[in-house]
Amino acid sequence: MALVTPTWMVKAIYNIRPATLKRLGIQAVLTDLDNTLIAWNNPEGTVQLRQWLEEMHVAGITVMVVSNNSNDRVGKALAGMELPYVARALKPLPVGIARAVHRLKLDRRACIMVGDQLLTDMVAGNLAGVRTVLVKPLISTDQWNTLPNRFVEGFIKRHMKRKGTFKYMEDIDD
Ligand SMILES: [Mg+2]
User: Fold this and answer.
1) What are phi and psi of 62, to 5 degrees?
2) Ligand 1 centre from 55 Cα, in Å?
3) Most buried residue among 79, 91, 124, 142 by CB atoms closer than 10 A?
4) Structural domain boundaries, residue 37
């Protein structure tokens, strides 16, 4: 269970405050793309997302997308946001996250991985040795290709709920 267990759980990536990150010595936020940063049916992102990115930018915190999607898809999704990214990250393998950490020239402890899926984002982040943040999927109706994962996730989440360890907080370290 340790591999799927996030370090923190927050309601949305926008809840993560720059001041909290600084207090914890975190300099970079690695993030999943679909349903974490943007809803798959809203590729433009929201005003909230743009504000959050601006706050991170002002605070000097790097936001880097680590996605299993193709270069083409991620590049298009992020057009206009000027975010660095690693595509074809092969989550749940740790290679994409390791590549991102290496590219940023940061210690693993200075990076967090944020995502909406236990079996890809959390496992990859935990294997890569960064701290992990699970967020609620931005929208609950998902793309068909994540359904098998969601099914298994349902079991794990129910297990965590029974243990009382499944609770989304307002910010990390709350
Ligand atoms: Mg996702």
Assistant:
1) -80, 135
2) 22
3) 124
4) 8-126
What separation in Å is there between the alpha carbon of 40 and the centre of ligand 1?
9
CATH of the domain at 23: 3.40.50.1000
pLDDT (tens digit per residue) in 82-117: 899 999 999 999 999 999 999 999 999 999 999 999
34 forms bridges with which residues in the sheet? 38
Q: State both tokens at 162.
A: 């029974």
Contact status, residue 23 vs residue 112, Cβ threshold 8 Å: no
Q: In sequence order, which residues have a C-beta less than 8 Å from that of residue 168 and are 6 or more positions away?
A: 9, 10, 11, 134, 135, 136
The total number of structural domains that make up the chain: 1
Distance 105 CA to ligand 1 centre (A): 25
Report the separation in Å between the CA atom of 114 and the middle of ligand 1, taken as the mean of its atom positions: 9
